[in-house]
């Protein structure tokens, strides 16, 4: 390539030609990775998650010393296990015996012989360690092979092997802790004493064995030598290896997890070799493994602040997964002949391709149904059916000895599949989110509120633990047995309502070697990801009445307890069923959570008090106080508003004969008619209006647009058009009132000085108490306005007409209003209404976000309602055209939607445009600034981001404290001025987040008994707008439009200093006192106190007091 | 208030006592600027006009009159004249009448000038204004006003520094909450008033339209012809008749751009881009260079991100 175009070389002399090598690199990056920059980012990421070279020498020195020490630990004669433990406990070391504990009169004995061999195994042994979450240290796994003479053939029985192993570990712990200057701990994976290992951490500043710099800790794991007398065939899943002396449990039951735990002790060295082999044949293995682990760590499959149940200490699973993908599947002879085998992947794949293949496998694999057997060299060691019948999920390794997933609940595997699906969606549509790489590898997903549709915090200490001994034996600890049972019960109970159920718990902490038992888990978080098609189903059907006595029916009744009942359904079926009674849509959204709460209560005795969610507090944010609803009497709601709207349309259509033009369309353009207003609309009939106290009287006016047939009768003059509209309104109002008793209509004329602007509206006040305001859309207006704005477009007509600058300016304002109201608003309304129908959680999300913005005094006029609706659509539609409700990234509850929007707002780059495919009919290119032209400005966005950051953090903490309201409380400390208004005269006050009922209960009418209802009257925004225009260059005002009773203001910067006097300064000034220097004579400064007095005067009757926050 | 200067850059400082502070109005004799001497035809008579700066934002004419009552009778008060002038100056002066009419079409009576011209013609119908009640107009803070006294002697009195701050007088127009309520009610006049207003306005509009048609140079159905005898063929009007005359043909697009038809849309590429060997080689080379450039740009971007410690996932 370098020879091409020799004579051109001069022209391109600046750019050096590509070498073949470079070219191949670039091509590879684009072909084998998602894109060139993706590859570069991967390259930048990898070194950050791998151990550094520094400190390695120190570590090696320590390991060598440890090796020498362990080899030379003196033997201990065989002893009775309890006596031996007693001897050790005198030295402060406990023996972590597993259940069932050894009794005093056992015949077998424990002993200690120096280990045969000590190896570095695991990921450190292969040099593929990946950094852990939370700054935990790298784990250096040290396998210590226990001599086979310590064991007998029957040691697989009754936990004898584990007891011997525990004793062996305790002796090592005792010896090492005295010989070395390191911190020693026991660590049990999942709190299972059978999987205990010894953890050695460097002490900072220790003199002899400091490996602090390596940022590593040593895990000493006793393993079973391959020469041990324990026969592998006795450890197949179906074998029962624990004989319980008590009669309560069945005489013998298979102990697959127990068996698997013993087999794990033989696995460490095998795994080392297997992974080493893989690393050699597969150049990209190391990178792919790292990517996979980073991905998994970010999602809690591994060690982190919260860990998905079952994935603690499952490092070997990820290597096993890649091994499976590379070497393929082992044949399983099923009844229906051999199943189709999965083809092994090629060995030349890039790391990214391997990573994606692993995700693809995880996303598609149904672990509950299809077992996975990795290709082995010598065929199955144990009949595969044994695994399939005795383990819920099967993933057998290449040696065919262990099942990686023996103790992983199916719910966790569902979650794994779901997460893989989500990431694949993002990777295959790079346009969806702004930064795929960050979503995939860099962002952690520990913010449960934005990851799960519902998060339930369960207090396990309240659970009744009447577990059978068999379960204890099998699972190793009470917690594990309980969680396994919870997991399977919930999975059964929720069925297809959820795509995934996550049980998350904190990682089991290390404990000092003086304590035998692992601390138990107190709280777990249960996260639900709904399947929108089924999640809110009202009835769960069970088996039909005919097979009442079958096992299925019994199981069904057992699962649901008293809630299960025989019911006859409309189609004639009589089945066992569970019916979830709901009265409001809020309650319907709670069904999955109430199922969880019911099941936890029924089966585990955990009352709803100890299994809490944030849903109810969130609901109450959007609901009016009970006494307000009581006073209002009328039942509002979106459905009722839409019905009222339809009624008005019908009434208008019947007027056809009386109107000079036929009415073509009536378009709604209101948030009240598209499910996105914070509060569901409430009608106030005339009769009720006068009885209500002032602070409950707010009645929203719902704007609608009337579209008449085209006609040439309209005058060709803007002012005349407005007057014709007036005449139209008058006719409609008269005829509406004559044809409908109880309906009132009036014409509202805004006293706008802009002659071109359509400032009149027809106000319709229905008998049920709904208020609408109608505008007439006449499309000729746009053309006429354009002609004023740009006279070159005016080629005909009264050519002597000339327009001055002010008129052009006014025309521009009028045109803006025209396009916003008549062109964009109906289109926006349609798009948003569509979204509400398509995504059940969208409406709730918007309502919450609006409430939140309002509560922080940023909604109207700073951020328009429409802009909020568009921003909230982001987590739902992403950036792509085709998205379905079931897509993995789409939230299905308003709480999650809210949390996602907050996260977006936290780092909202408002300078960058936000493009969403909302409008189907038109490209969004048309006037994108329509909804944001009046703000937010830079100040507001900065505040917004700060609030979002705080709220997002608070929401994260709220999972433990369950206090949602604090998210919606606004601190007024950073305002210079806070204007306290009289809540009793604010018709919207009842919507205030902190509304005090005393305001409307006590008779605080101030002597103004207004008999006429004023639909839509709300003085707060009027006052706010007046203040903002009057003091535009002095102050910036903020207020909560939803029932706020305070207005905050900040002085604009740059007004503090004295400045020369000017006639048109635009602020209220006072001359500087005379006493100052002579040259200051001509200077004036801002007259703050006078401005405050002005504000007080302007708001007479509204303002109670003005609080000034002095700051120096 | 004793240490406040009495005068500032030629303005007299008039302190006003507010409930908890003092407000300051700056006053000066109005002096017409030289550049537009001919302009406001004695709207602001020199010698008896007081120029006020920093009038309270909600001041009404009545309140200012009350404030200066002690100096003499006030003829009228004009608010914010300067800003209006500044805007109006851009437009041509011939248009003044129009602007005035546009400013307040509802309440303003017919312009005087026209009335004189039309003495012989039929009198145009009057526009019945919408009912209006007196409401405060809020102005931007720190704005100015012109106060015209009946007598020039009052001016000197007004400019003499007052002994003590005067309280701000108050007229009966409602403020605050009652203002907003009154405004709400005022914006919803009775239906018959609206009908009367709209009908009379349209009558007047029709009248003006027919008059302008009569006065217009071209009549309906007559072609627009220039001196050379060419007929201007225009578009507009309905059913083949233009407003000014002629036959409507030319398309709107033509009127705007001067381009005709969409024949040129399907324009074929004249030359094959890759025909000669050197073109092909060049294209390949360019593609490679672009590739490299993009790659380098990506690299740079990632480097930048790396600096911001972004790639530490946890």
TrEMBL record, chain A:
Q: Name one GO biological process term.
A: tRNA export from nucleus
Answer whether the UniProt record assigns the keyword Signal to this protein: no
Pfam families found in the cross-reference section:
Nrap, Nrap_D2, Nrap_D3, Nrap_D4, Nrap_D5, Nrap_D6
State where it is primarily located: nucleus
Subcellular localization(s) per the UniProt record: Nucleus, Nucleolus
GO molecular function annotation: RNA binding
Please tell me whether the keyword rRNA processing is annotated for this protein: yes
Keywords annotated in UniProt: Nucleus, Ribonucleoprotein, Ribosome biogenesis, RNA-binding, rRNA processing
Which superkingdom?
A: Eukaryota
Q: What is this protein called?
A: U3 small nucleolar RNA-associated protein 22
From TrEMBL, chain B:
Q: Which cellular component terms (GO) are annotated to the entry? A: CURI complex; UTP-C complex
| All residue ranges annotated as the Ribosomal RNA-processing protein 7 C-terminal domain in the record | 186-314
Q: Give the compositionally biased regions (Acidic residues).
A: 94-106
GO terms for MF: nucleic acid binding
Keywords, in A-Z order: Coiled coil
Q: Name the Gene3D superfamilies on file.
A: 3.30.70.330, 6.10.250.1770
Q: Which InterPro entries match?
A: Nucleotide-bd_a/b_plait_sf (IPR012677), RBD_domain_sf (IPR035979), RRM_Rrp7 (IPR040447), RRP7 (IPR040446), RRP7_C (IPR024326)
- Coiled-coil features, chain-numbered ranges: 278-308
User: What ranges does the record give for the region Disordered, renumbered to this chain?
Assistant: 89-132
Report the family membership: Belongs to the RRP7 family.
- Protein name from the UniProt record: Ribosomal RNA-processing protein 7-domain-containing protein
Source organism per entry reads Suillus subaureus
Lineage of the native species? Eukaryota, Fungi, Dikarya, Basidiomycota, Agaricomycotina
